Each structure stands twice: as structure tokens, then as C-alpha cells.
Amino acid sequence: MTLPQLQALPAVPAERAAGPHWDEGHIAQCLAPGCYRLADGRLALQALSCLITPQAQDHVMVVHTGAGLYVTHVLGREGTHAQLCAPGVDLLSIAQPVVEVNATSRLALRSGGDLDLASADGSVSISARHFVASVTGTLVQNAQHLVTHAQHCVLQVAALLRMHGQQTLITAKEDMKLDAERISLG
User: Fold this and answer.
1) What 3-state DSSP class applies to 102?
2) Residue pair 28/59 in contact by the 8 Å Cβ criterion
3) How many domains does the chain have?
């Protein structure tokens, strides 16, 4: 529901209409993203500054303004989940010299489209007990230097494996085995 649609609904009683007036209430239901019915029947929009998305049963702070009724704060919630959202905004960014996101058990980054990780002048470090990368299309790696260290490395290619370089060196401390129907050297 948009602000003009909300304003077309029955007005706030006259005694509350003059100037900003703060009040508290409880969310009864979500009518549409950013639009809520309070337990006392009043309709309110989520204020842009209210970044926690209200849910049914939330204890909230509301403000009456000349433009309407807005949920400004979520004061309390029985549940343990919260969603950050800036209503009516397509891009939400955080601009700080240092930003940290810490999770004690799990962190998930998901995108229905593109996902970019970039470090213009620094480095990207990934440290994990297990690391799994799965690509259904194309994987491209470009580097000035590529260094890989592993206790065991298994490379399995279904069709063609090609290695090319100005100089290519393959060494083994003990054994080297080449096994094929045909081996061409030179």
C-alpha cells in the first residue's frame, strides 16, 4: 500500500492530528510490505528510519504526523529473527572506513543475481576448515602468480586438460606415471 492509498483511508481522530504525536502499539498484521494494521485498527507505514521490518505481535513506537502514521521503532518482539529493510529503497549500502559482520554459528550471503566481492587495493582472504566451490557454467581465474599447496591434489577432467607455458616443469620425488592408449612426446 502506498502513502496516497493509506492517506485515502479514514483519517486519524482530530485530537491526534495536530503536530507530531508519539504513541506505542502492537502490530496486528502486515497488509503489504511496509504497511501495517495496528492492534487498535489504525493503519501505519514503516518509516524509512525503521530498519527492522515489523512483524505481527511486535511492540512498536509510532509517530502521528501531518502525512500520516508511521512505525518508527520496533521496541520488542517475542521471536528471535529480525530482517533489515529500508522500505521503498532499492539500494541499501553501508559506508564506513571499517565494517565487520560477525556470526557465531553461520553466515550466508545470497543473491538472486550477481554477487561481487572486490578489494581494489587490498587482498581477499578466505580461511575455512573445508572449502567447496561449485560453478554450473564457466570458471575463469586470472592471476599474475598462482600458488597452490596441498597434501593431496586430485584433478579430474571429463574431456580435455591443456597446460601450456613458456616453460613447463613437472617433477616427482619418487615415481611419475603416464598412462594412456597413446602418448606423444615432442
Assistant:
1) coil
2) no
3) 1
